[in-house]
Amino acid sequence: QVQLQESGPGPVKPSQTLSLTCTVSDGSITTNSYDWSWTRQPPGKGLEWIGCIRYSDSTYYSPSLKSRTSISRDTSKNHFTLQLSSVTPEDTAVYYCARNDYAGSSWGQGTQVTVSS
């Protein structure tokens, strides 16, 4: 069964770029038909989809975050990364990575990111 593990820097200061990595085990990020996504949940709010990278390397982003978001992958390390630039305290959230296809989703456990000066 595929496993996903998020990792990141912990606290981030406003205006910096947030960078998170999702390391995938027991599954390849190039396997046909899957997409690999980032979603976040701010404190007291619902889930917000950030974007995804497909098995084909195509990327898709939430319109509200597109100007600040970049998702890429390293197939040699079987991981994919999220970069979110110019962060503010409103970007404080638990960030999740997931594998998705028509059958459903497998999620990582999430990682807390706090943006604070």
Features:
117 residues, mainly beta, four-stranded antiparallel β-sheet
Kindly describe this structure.
This protein has 117 residues and is an all-beta fold. It has no helices and ten strands. It has strands at 3-7, 18-25, 35-41, 48-54, 59-61, 69-74, 79-84, 93-101, 104-107, 111-113. Strands 3, 4, 5, 8, 9 and 10 form a six-stranded antiparallel sheet that branches. A four-stranded antiparallel sheet has the order 1-2-7-6, with no helix packed on it. Strand 3 (35-41) and strand 4 form a beta hairpin.
Shape: globular
For the biggest sheet, the summary is: 6 strands, antiparallel
Termini, distance in Å? 39 Å
Portion of residues within helices = under 10%
Give the helix tally.
0
Order of H and E elements: EEEEEEEEEE
Radius of gyration: 13 Å
Low-confidence stretches: none
Structural class: mainly beta
Strand content: over 45%
Topology, number of strands: 10
**Residue-averaged pLDDT:** 94
Structure, briefly:
The chain is built from no helices and ten strands.
How are the secondary structure elements laid out?
Layout: E1 3-7, E2 18-25, E3 35-41, E4 48-54, E5 59-61, E6 69-74, E7 79-84, E8 93-101, E9 104-107, E10 111-113
